[in-house]
C-alpha cells in the first residue's frame, strides 16, 4: 500500500485481500484510492461526521426528512424545527457542533 498523508493508494487485489484493514484505515479518516493496472477506478472516503449526525437526527425523529429535503440554503435548514431533546441530552445542534470540533481536531 502506498501512502500520501491521509490518502492511500491500493490495488483492487489489495482491497479484496485486506478489506478489514482498509475499513480500519477509513475509520481513522484516511481516503483510499483503488487502482487497477495503475489507473484509478474508485475512491473510498470515510463518512462525513456532519452528514452522519444529520442522518442520525432523521433516524431518531428529531428532524423531518421532508422539511430537510425542501431546504435549499443553510438559512432554510437552520429554520427547520426540531424536537427538543430530553432532559440531560444534547440538542442536535450541540451534537453536530461537537462532531465538527472532533473532526477539526483530526
Describe the structure.
It is elongated and about 50 Å long. It is built from six helices and four strands. The chain has helices at residues 12-17, 19-27, 49-59, 65-70, 74-78, 92-105; strands at residues 2-4, 7-11, 31-36, 39-44. Strand 3 and strand 4 form a beta hairpin. The mean pLDDT is 81. It has a four-stranded mixed sheet with strand order 1-2-3-4. The protein has 106 residues and is α+β, with helices and mostly antiparallel strands.
Topology:
Blueprint: E1 2-4, E2 7-11, H1 12-17, H2 19-27, E3 31-36, E4 39-44, H3 49-59, H4 65-70, H5 74-78, H6 92-105
Parallel strand pairs: 2-3
Antiparallel strand pairs: 1-2, 3-4
Helix pairs in contact: 3-6
Number of helical runs? Answer: 6
Overall pLDDT score: 81
Sheet-strand content, in percent, reads 15-25%
Secondary-structure element string: EEHHEEHHHH
Shape: elongated
Report on the biggest sheet: 4 strands, mixed
Give the C-alpha Rg: 18 Å
Which stretches are poorly predicted, pLDDT < 50 over at least 5 residues?
none
User: How many individual β-strands?
Assistant: 4
Give the proportion of residues in helices: 40-55%
Our measurement of the CA-to-CA distance between the termini, rounded to an integer number of angstroms, reads 22 Å
| Strand order, largest beta sheet | 1-2-3-4
Structural class: alpha+beta
Amino acid at each position: 500500500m502506498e501512502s500520501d498523508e491521509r490518502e492511500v493508494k491500493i490495488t483492487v487485489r489489495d482491497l479484496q485481500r485486506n478489506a478489514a484493514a482498509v475499513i480500519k484505515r477509513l475509520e481513522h479518516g484516511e481516503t483510499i484510492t483503488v487502482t487497477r493496472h495503475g489507473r484509478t477506478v474508485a475512491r473510498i472516503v470515510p463518512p462525513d461526521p456532519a452528514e452522519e449526525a444529520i442522518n442520525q437526527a432523521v433516524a431518531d425523529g428529531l428532524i423531518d426528512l421532508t422539511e430537510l429535503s425542501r431546504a435549499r440554503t443553510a438559512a432554510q435548514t437552520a429554520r427547520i424545527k426540531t424536537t427538543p431533546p430530553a432532559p440531560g441530552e444534547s440538542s442536535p445542534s450541540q451534537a453536530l457542533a461537537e462532531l465538527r470540533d472532533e473532526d477539526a481536531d483530526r
